[in-house]
């Protein structure tokens, strides 16, 4: 009975709400898909969901992302944002979104770019251990509570680019990509071992900050962006090991140090373990 009510009343209403939202967006975002196409896409998606709900096959469990019992909790976020099988898209939400919305259980991908989120609290992602990717690019985040990310054991990609961070939070061990470009990070806000335990880290983006030194870079890193910081020197232990001439750092194949005060030609022995020279000032 409850499911029938949901299907007959809530779903058409949800479809209409989404349609309205995409009509608005298509006018607001230059170059976005025409409203009708998106309407078609989302209403088709909902229609097929409705069809599945109307005739639940006896031998197949209903895998729709909004279980009846949870509908009351999940609907507000999924009306404000767009929820599609494990992904939540909350981009440029209006009215202004200043905190992380309550996420549906089992969210794997969260895109909350270009909002006005100021602070991340430990409870924001508390029990959503299914998260694999979080993109918070272009918010106003200046504070992140301890433990906000540390329990997210499946998290692989995290972007905090274009925010107002002066220090970094504890990062979870499985990260492969971390982006904090365009923040206000100084070396004292980046703990010496901030990246040390991230043994799967491949991309590390820390460009356009105010770092004074190169942080400890895990062996696994392939792409390192540190351009446009305030790095004044590099030494033999920054990338290589001064006490071992046999040491090779083979993974690292793109290092950007341009836009820093350091003159790299002053440190001829600092890059001997690497396959490529960093980009940057040599004169
Ligand atoms: C860069 O570092 C120097 C000290 O090495 C400091 O005087 C200067 O204010 C720093 N610049 C910025 C933009 O942080
Ligand atoms: C080389 O230096 C590292 C620290 O930079 C140290 O852990 C290691 O034990 C040193 N090895 C030798 C042979 O001195």
From TrEMBL:
Belongs to the small leucine-rich proteoglycan (SLRP) family. SLRP class III subfamily. GO terms for cellular component: extracellular matrix; extracellular space. The lineage of its organism: Eukaryota, Metazoa, Chordata, Craniata, Vertebrata. It is found in: Secreted, Extracellular space, Extracellular matrix. SMART domains: LRR_TYP. One of its GO terms (biological process) is bone development. Keywords: Disulfide bond, Extracellular matrix, Glycoprotein, Growth factor, Leucine-rich repeat, Proteoglycan, Repeat, Secreted, Signal. Transmembrane segments: none annotated. It comes from Anabas testudineus. Residues 1-19 form the signal peptide. This is Mimecan.
């Amino acid at each position: 009975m409850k499911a029938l009510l949901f299907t007959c009343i809530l779903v058409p209403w949800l479809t209409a709400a989404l349609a309205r939202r995409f009509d608005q967006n298509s006018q607001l975002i230059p170059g976005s898909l025409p409203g009708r196409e998106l309407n078609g896409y989302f209403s088709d998606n909902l229609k097929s969901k409705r069809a599945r709900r109307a005739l639940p096959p006896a031998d197949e469990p209903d895998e729709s992302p909004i279980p009846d019992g949870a509908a009351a909790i999940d609907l507000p976020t999924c009306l404000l944002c767009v929820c599609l099988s494990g992904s939540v898209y909350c981009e440029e939400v209006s009215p202004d979104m200043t905190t992380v919305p309550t996420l549906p259980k089992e969210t794997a991908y969260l895109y909350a770019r270009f909002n006005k989120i100021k602070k991340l609290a430990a409870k924001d992602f508390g029990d959503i251990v299914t998260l694999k990717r979080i993109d918070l690019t272009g918010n106003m985040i200046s504070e992140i509570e301890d433990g906000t990310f540390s329990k997210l054991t499946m998290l692989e990609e995290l972007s905090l680019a274009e925010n107002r961070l002066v220090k970094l939070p504890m990062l979870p061990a499985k990260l492969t990509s971390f982006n904090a470009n365009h923040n206000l990070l100084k070396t004292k806000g980046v703990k010496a071992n901030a990246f040390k335990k991230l043994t799967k880290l491949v991309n590390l983006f820390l460009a356009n900050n105010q770092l004074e030194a190169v942080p400890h870079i895990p062996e696994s890193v392939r792409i390192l962006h540190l351009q446009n910081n305030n790095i004044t020197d590099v030494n033999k232990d920054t990338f290589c090991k001064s006490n071992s001439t046999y040491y090779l750092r083979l993974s690292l194949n793109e290092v950007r140090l341009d836009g820093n005060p350091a003159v790299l030609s002053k440190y001829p022995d600092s890059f001997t373990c690497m396959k490529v020279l960093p980009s940057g000032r040599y004169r």
